[in-house]
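Kindly inspect what follows.
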Amino acid sequence: MELETWQLVFLSALGIIAGFLNVMAGGGSLLTLPAMVLMGIPGPIANGTNRVAILAQNITAVTGFRKKGFSDFKLSLTLALCALPGAVAGAYVGTLVRGVLFNRILAGIMIVLLIQMAWKSRSKSKGDPVPEGAPPRMLLGHICIVGVGFYGGFIQAGVGFMLMAVLHNVMRLDLVRVNMHKVFVVGFYTAAALGVFVWTGNVLWIPGIALAIGNSIGGWIGSHVSVKKGEGFIRKILYVTLTAMALRLLWGP
C-alpha cells in the first residue's frame, strides 16, 4: 500500500518525538504503531515497518553517546548477545500473533516498573549495600535480558522501560549509562528482528524510511540531552512517560 505525502511527513514528525522518548525513557513505539495502524497499515506490517525506524534511531543514538564520551562496548555487546536469541524468536511470533489483551498487560507492567523504580530510589537514599555492577547482579541482569529480548522482538513497544528496569534496578547502573547500553542493545537485536520481518514480507520501506528520519533526529537529540541533563532529569522523564503511557493504555481506545 502507498501512503499520501502528508502521511509520510506526519510520520517523520511523530518519529522525532518517538525517538526522543525511546532514548530518554521508552514508549515511543506506543505512538508510532497506533498511528500506522490508523493509516490503514495492518498490525504485523506496522510492527515490522517500525523496526526500520528503531534501527536507524539507535545507530544514531549510539553515535551520539560515543561522541559525548559514553561507551562501554564490552558490556553492551554481552547484553546484546543475550537479547539476540529471544529477539529473533519474538520477532517470528510477532509476525503471527495479534494480541487482544496487549494494551492492558503492558499498562500493568509499566505500573509495576514505575512503583518498583520509585521504591528503589527511596531505598537507595538510605544506603544500598550492593555496589553498582556487582558480579551477582551482572549475571542476573544478563539472564533477565534474554526475556526482555523476546519481548522486544515480539512487539518492541515499551521494551525501553523493561531494559531500564533491568539495567538500573538489577545491575545498579546509573541512568545515563543505562540509556547508553539500552540504545546499543536495542539497535543490535533490532537488526536481527528486522531481518525476520523482511523475510516474512512484513515491512513497508517508504513509510519505514520516513519514520526512520524522524526517529534518528529524535534519537540524536535524546542522546545529547541524556548526557547533558544527567540522571535526575532522565528519572523525571521516565516517571512522567511511564504514567502517561500506562493511563493511555488502560483507558484509551
Confidence is low (pLDDT under 50) at residues 125-130. The two ends are 25 Å apart (CA to CA).
